[in-house]
């Protein structure tokens, strides 16, 4: 590609609404252009990257035996009504009426349509297993779109759906996809981690998320460096930090803690470790049919240095629809405002759940349900009835790994892929069956597998940038090599050598761009460093006099001189070095 | 590709709603699957074809110097409001509100968004010319979607937009696209014709449509076999069929024509040629501000054997917003119901427009504005004031070509491409300017260029099918070659030879499918004939004993035997023969 036949448009400054580095750099490099809130034009420079990502995804999906198709962007509501997601999906799903007043969905995902294809196309066990995928435009009407392609409303997703005859088959299909995803992210040249995940609203049994590792990532990834344990924060199991409960030694004693509403302050005041304190979190569950009479307050107890895990909390029987209690509810049930709450002497009966660690604590400090007072020396069994025990906290670095093989570490990640074992949740709702060997209809066992294609661009940048701009992995760089001639219009030698190298690289199948715009060297170099092309060759009269060209890798601090005759082989060896064994 | 790793799903019968052959065959061949009215899943077999079409389009667009990008499916209304098309587009354009109540368009086309990109990205004449294109999902809420991919609501379109500094540059860009389209349809292996077209609602000056020739086509294409004149019916110029007007010979005479309301019947009753009669068409134009007082009726006169051309009619000054008159309006203005209308003795004054041919007629027959009566011997100037003259009829086969080089012929076509010279209609509305050499802002000169990617599938089939199924041109067949082994599970020789040929074809870069499903030969052959793969190799024990394989081209009536050792070269020569010189 010659730069004058392409469209390059870089900016010195990022627009004010770009908050994170990937958004800023993509805007500055002219890869995307904002059209509306969370809606972007993919400019030529950006689209090249998207296509490269898509191609890697496509190749690995095909290699894993998945078959590509394409489901529509606009989907009739009736399919979504069958599974109930027409009502459940909420405002994230954009809905539209046609000229006849019929309802449609702008697809946020495609389980329903896929299941409809399967229930009509799959008749016999002989057609199984099968895995369909598509790479398609999705739309989710985010409440607060931001971060460029990281949380845009219109985006490109690869979603795949596997169909099997039984759970064992489904798990095999799931593993195939897990392995394909691993190869995809390897080939994308990204540092990533797969973690066990919660299934969320999509239903089904098991799932894993694939995260690109980046300090700026929104998600906390929990892993054990000494084993293969890895989970996201929502799913990572918190083990009791005390193996067993010590015997009570202290007396229960109400202690004045004026103005000390936080565990940290109480511990400091009483000169005890924060680990000796217990914090109270109050939740409300309403039984809508019974109204006020059906309202129940729950008190969840965590060690003072721990944080509540809201996903785990929602899985406790009875807490599926919890919300945090309001201050007036707390006063009504506890007789005191937040800050001094505890399990002892509540005004009205509450249900108590203690975190696994709290359940093993003895002689602990908790609120006295009276402003400016805490209890010290509190003990289970003696002062408070034995509580319901559950894992309700976020793990922290240094916790023992749940597999017993070391301690946990935490790093930040950006979710770019998710694989789910759906089981029969959709096939049951939509009556998607096949005939088994005995001619008996059986529900299809499903899995679903998503990759956020456009989001990968943002994640790759968050992981790979420096003060000059983006540092693309070679496999998804918009161009692998840029040739920057110095004074091509003045020097016949530069012109000849530039053209020769350009043609040689093209002939060798290298994705090369020749910057024939005639820009000043400084501006030209700055553009390509911002855009992030991994390999740069500078051709100038000075070097040519010695038969040399200048090479600079995007991560190199110093350029090296390479003989003209060796540059092609040199570039090829650089590119080969970038390849990941497939 | 092995058939067992792909998804093949053929039907014996087409669904009842499939009216035309391409729709029926695509459904039966499992290429598309209906999801809703005018909305289809592209199944794996269909998507392969779409991708091949897209790739040919992409390659030729790139070769012509166009740059690929991607504009969003969901576009903020504000851009469409700027050009007024938010109001003008009508119900064909689907509109949607987001969670904040803001208006969006599901794009039916992208002139507005493209012009917005241009006005911010193009700053200087040095950036011109530039041509951006994208291949993207479009949605048009057709009142009556039908014919499968021929008139679906969701479809894939390639749309390109060129930007130039002056009209001469714009015409150069237009010609580049015209030539690229010619190469595209050549490479698609389709018989096609480019015809001059009316610009329609999109605005601007010149345009051409590209049509796939097919007897079932909706459009009439006018062309001159002795020259390069070609236009669609809307745009084809009708020349006067009488070079000059003869002198009046007959007297004007009111003649009883009881019950003869049609020219054909009147001509038969009076025993005169139909070409001696004149038919009346009455139009109404309302000046909305003046109400009833602003209503004007127009009488358009055509020779009895001619038909009105509604597009040409709308271009007559004053007739831009015409409608056909109601019966009550006709009675009010003419004093008689339709059937006996004419230019003489109307009850109220009407504006008269005569077709070019009618204007040169003498001694003609027309209605007398009295039920059951016609005038014979009517003459311009003598009986009726000289009329306004215009080309308002559809041409017919045998008419002289407007270029004077022969006579016109008519064939049917399916529109698959359209190129437009837009000029400054959009850049003016959206203030899209660039700075010229003198630093003065100038309006961008635009062209736009569309290809209906998914529609091409339907059109290709309408042109290429037989009683067994589809006959794809090799360049867009889902597979170029199918290998049908006979009894691969029984015969080691068949298995070995099948695998050898399959691997050899793959290694040679041939897009081959190996039908390893184990179907009966009859069912297997029927499937591939229905699907329309152009080259078939059958491998069986009987042939192998003689060292032969059986080859059948999709259009061949008889198979030929080819030595095993020569089959690869044989297939390659067949495929090379299919190539169009690019």
UniProtKB/TrEMBL annotation, chains A, B:
<dbReference type="InterPro" id="IPR036754">
    <property type="entry name" value="YbaK/aa-tRNA-synt-asso_dom_sf"/>
</dbReference>
<dbReference type="InterPro" id="IPR004500">
    <property type="entry name" value="Pro-tRNA-synth_IIa_bac-type"/>
</dbReference>
<keyword id="KW-0547">Nucleotide-binding</keyword>
<dbReference type="InterPro" id="IPR007214">
    <property type="entry name" value="YbaK/aa-tRNA-synth-assoc-dom"/>
</dbReference>
<dbReference type="InterPro" id="IPR045864">
    <property type="entry name" value="aa-tRNA-synth_II/BPL/LPL"/>
</dbReference>
<dbReference type="InterPro" id="IPR023717">
    <property type="entry name" value="Pro-tRNA-Synthase_IIa_type1"/>
</dbReference>
<dbReference type="InterPro" id="IPR002316">
    <property type="entry name" value="Pro-tRNA-ligase_IIa"/>
</dbReference>
<comment type="subunit">
    <text>Homodimer.</text>
</comment>
<comment type="similarity">
    <text>Belongs to the class-II aminoacyl-tRNA synthetase family. ProS type 1 subfamily.</text>
</comment>
<dbReference type="InterPro" id="IPR006195">
    <property type="entry name" value="aa-tRNA-synth_II"/>
</dbReference>
<protein>
    <recommendedName>
        <fullName>Proline--tRNA ligase</fullName>
        <ecNumber>6.1.1.15</ecNumber>
    </recommendedName>
</protein>
<dbReference type="Pfam" id="PF04073">
    <property type="entry name" value="tRNA_edit"/>
</dbReference>
<dbReference type="InterPro" id="IPR044140">
    <property type="entry name" value="ProRS_anticodon_short"/>
</dbReference>
<keyword id="KW-0067">ATP-binding</keyword>
<dbReference type="Pfam" id="PF03129">
    <property type="entry name" value="HGTP_anticodon"/>
</dbReference>
<feature type="domain" description="Aminoacyl-transfer RNA synthetases class-II family profile">
    <location>
        <begin position="33"/>
        <end position="473"/>
    </location>
</feature>
<dbReference type="InterPro" id="IPR050062">
    <property type="entry name" value="Pro-tRNA_synthetase"/>
</dbReference>
<dbReference type="GO" id="GO:0004827">
    <property type="term" value="F:proline-tRNA ligase activity"/>
</dbReference>
<dbReference type="InterPro" id="IPR002314">
    <property type="entry name" value="aa-tRNA-synt_IIb"/>
</dbReference>
<keyword id="KW-0436">Ligase</keyword>
<keyword id="KW-0963">Cytoplasm</keyword>
<dbReference type="Pfam" id="PF00587">
    <property type="entry name" value="tRNA-synt_2b"/>
</dbReference>
<dbReference type="InterPro" id="IPR004154">
    <property type="entry name" value="Anticodon-bd"/>
</dbReference>
<dbReference type="InterPro" id="IPR033730">
    <property type="entry name" value="ProRS_core_prok"/>
</dbReference>
<dbReference type="InterPro" id="IPR036621">
    <property type="entry name" value="Anticodon-bd_dom_sf"/>
</dbReference>
<keyword id="KW-0030">Aminoacyl-tRNA synthetase</keyword>
<comment type="function">
    <text>Catalyzes the attachment of proline to tRNA(Pro) in a two-step reaction: proline is first activated by ATP to form Pro-AMP and then transferred to the acceptor end of tRNA(Pro). As ProRS can inadvertently accommodate and process non-cognate amino acids such as alanine and cysteine, to avoid such errors it has two additional distinct editing activities against alanine. One activity is designated as 'pretransfer' editing and involves the tRNA(Pro)-independent hydrolysis of activated Ala-AMP.</text>
</comment>
<keyword id="KW-0648">Protein biosynthesis</keyword>
């Amino acid at each position: 590609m010659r730069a004058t036949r392409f469209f390059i448009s870089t900016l010195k400054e990022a627009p004010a609404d770009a908050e994170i580095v990937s958004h800023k750099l993509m805007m500055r490099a002219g890869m995307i252009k904002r059209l509306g809130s969370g809606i972007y034009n993919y400019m030529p420079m950006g689209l090249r990257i998207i296509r490269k990502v898509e191609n890697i995804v496509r190749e690995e999906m095909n290699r894993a035996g998945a078959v590509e198709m394409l489901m529509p962007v606009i989907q009739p509501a009736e399919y979504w009504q069958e599974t109930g997601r027409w009502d459940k999906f909420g405002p994230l799903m954009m809905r539209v009426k046609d000229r006849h007043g019929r309802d449609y969905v702008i697809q946020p995902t495609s389980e329903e349509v896929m299941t409809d294809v399967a229930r009509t196309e799959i008749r016999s066990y002989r057609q199984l297993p099968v895995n369909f995928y598509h790479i398609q435009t999705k739309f989710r009407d985010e409440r607060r779109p931001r971060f460029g392609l990281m949380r845009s409303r219109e985006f490109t997703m690869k979603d795949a759906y596997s169909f099997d005859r039984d759970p064992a088959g489904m798990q095999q299909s799931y593993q195939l996809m897990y392995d394909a995803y691993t190869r995809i992210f390897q080939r994308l040249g990204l540092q990533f981690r797969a973690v066990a995940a919660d299934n969320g609203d999509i239903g089904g049994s098991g799932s894993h998320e694939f995260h690109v590792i980046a300090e700026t990532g929104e998600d906390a990834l929990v892993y054990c460096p000494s084993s293969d344990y890895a989970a996201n924060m929502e799913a990572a199991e918190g083990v009791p930090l005390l193996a067993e409960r010590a015997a009570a030694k202290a007396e229960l004693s109400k202690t004045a803690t004026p103005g000390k509403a936080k565990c940290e302050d109480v511990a400091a005041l009483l000169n005890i470790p924060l680990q000796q304190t217990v914090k109270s979190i109050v939740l409300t569950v309403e039984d809508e049919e019974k109204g006020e009479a059906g309202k129940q307050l729950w008190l969840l107890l965590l060690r003072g240095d721990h944080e509540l895990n809201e996903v785990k909390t929602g899985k406790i029987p009875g807490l599926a629809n919890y919300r945090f209690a309001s201050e007036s509810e707390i006063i009504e049930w506890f007789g005191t405002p937040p800050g001094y709450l505890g399990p002892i002497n509540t005004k009205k009966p509450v249900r108590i759940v203690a975190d696994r660690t709290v359940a093993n604590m003895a002689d602990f400090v908790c609120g006295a349900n009276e402003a400016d007072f805490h209890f010290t020396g509190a003990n289970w069994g003696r002062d408070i009835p034995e509580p319901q025990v559950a894992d309700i906290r976020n793990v922290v670095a240094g916790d023992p790994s749940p597999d017993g093989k070391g301690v946990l570490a935490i790093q930040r990640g950006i979710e770019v892929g998710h694989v789910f074992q759906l089981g029969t949740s959709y096939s049951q709702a939509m009556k998607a069956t096949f005939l088994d060997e005995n001619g008996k209809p059986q529900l299809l066992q499903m899995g679903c597998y998503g990759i956020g294609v456009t989001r990968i661009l943002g994640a790759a940048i968050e992981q790979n940038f420096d003060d000059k701009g983006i540092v693309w992995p070679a496999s998804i760089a918009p161009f692998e090599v840029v040739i920057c001639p110095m004074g091509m219009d003045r020097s016949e030698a530069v012109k000849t050598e530039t053209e020769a190298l350009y043609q040689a690289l093209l002939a060798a199948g290298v994705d090369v761009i020749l910057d024939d715009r005639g820009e000043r060297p400084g501006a030209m170099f700055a553009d390509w460093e911002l855009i992030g092309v991994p390999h740069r060759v500078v051709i100038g009269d000075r070097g040519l006099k010695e038969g040399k060209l200048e090479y600079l890798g995007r991560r190199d601090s110093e350029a090296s001189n390479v003989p003209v005759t060796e540059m092609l082989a040199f570039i090829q060896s650089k590119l080969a070095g970038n390849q990941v064994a497939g």
